[in-house]
């Protein structure tokens, strides 16, 4: 999959410090074990990073949304795979140029530092969520986090991912995710539009109570 990334880079127009890559839904950006030659920033759309278990199950580690920086590794290989949730545009930066980039551009240095700390905080929160929270608490936490990351008013937003993605991120079945979302809607906590990924938060306080 690293070869495909290189092909995109060769065809993409050069940008100020990186190269733009356009991916279609389901297209892979890199695979687990690929050389971590580049790191990335999302321009539009969403990327999911994940691992496939030996029995074929998928665990989604994180969703990377507009502005997020990801793919910086401590070692020389990517520890997760990454693919487009829908149509996506990212900018790829050569890892070998990281030191020069942060020296030449203090604003970019601050972005990388903020992104690194934020990714660490989200990874810690995700570990707690998987290990200690009930299904209802997991979904309440997820909805509040997505509202904060996606929506300007935090009350209404369109999820970029499908329910199967949510299930694989939260360690639940798709049936459990659908059942709890419907229960939240019946209880007046959220508003769901039929055949839509649109979510309205109707009772934020109650959701925050589940998130505590």
From TrEMBL:
Coiled coil region boundaries: none
Which PROSITE patterns does the record cross-reference, listed alphabetically? Answer: CNMP_BINDING_3 (PS50042), HTH_CRP_2 (PS51063)
Keywords of this protein's UniProt record, alphabetized? DNA-binding, Transcription, Transcription regulation
Q: Which residues form the HTH crp-type domain?
A: 133-212
> Does the keyword field hold DNA-binding?
yes
Key word DNA-binding present: yes
Classification via Gene3D superfamilies: Jelly Rolls (2.60.120.10), Winged helix-like DNA-binding domain superfamily/Winged helix DNA-binding domain (1.10.10.10)
What is the top-level taxon of the source organism?
A: Bacteria
Record GO terms (molecular function): DNA binding; DNA-binding transcription factor activity
Entries under PANTHER family matching the protein: CRP FAMILY TRANSCRIPTIONAL REGULATORY PROTEIN (PTHR24567), FUMARATE AND NITRATE REDUCTION REGULATORY PROTEIN (PTHR24567:SF75)
- Name of the protein: Transcriptional regulator
* Species in which this protein is naturally found: Reyranella soli
Organismal lineage: Bacteria, Pseudomonadati, Pseudomonadota, Alphaproteobacteria, Hyphomicrobiales
């Amino acid at each position: 999959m690293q070869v495909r990334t290189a092909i995109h880079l060769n065809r993409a127009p050069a940008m100020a410090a990186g190269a733009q890559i356009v991916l279609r839904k389901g297209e892979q950006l890199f695979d687990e074990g690929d050389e971590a030659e580049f790191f990335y920033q999302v321009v539009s759309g969403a990327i999911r990073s994940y691992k496939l278990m030996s029995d074929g199950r998928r665990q989604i580690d994180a969703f990377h949304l507009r502005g997020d920086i990801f793919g910086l590794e401590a070692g020389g290989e990517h520890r997760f795979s990454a693919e487009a949730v829908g149509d996506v545009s990212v900018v790829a930066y050569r890892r070998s140029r990281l030191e020069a980039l942060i020296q030449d551009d203090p604003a970019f240095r601050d972005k990388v530092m903020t992104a690194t700390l934020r990714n660490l905080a989200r990874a810690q929160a995700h570990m707690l969520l998987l290990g200690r929270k009930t299904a209802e608490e997991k979904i309440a936490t997820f909805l509040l986090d997505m509202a904060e990351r996606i929506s300007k008013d935090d009350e209404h937003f369109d999820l970029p991912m499908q329910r199967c993605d949510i299930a694989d991120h939260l360690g639940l079945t798709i049936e459990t995710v659908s059942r709890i979302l419907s229960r939240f809607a019946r209880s007046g906590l959220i508003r769901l539009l039929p055949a839509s990924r649109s979510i309205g938060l109707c009772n934020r306080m109650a959701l925050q109570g589940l998130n505590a």
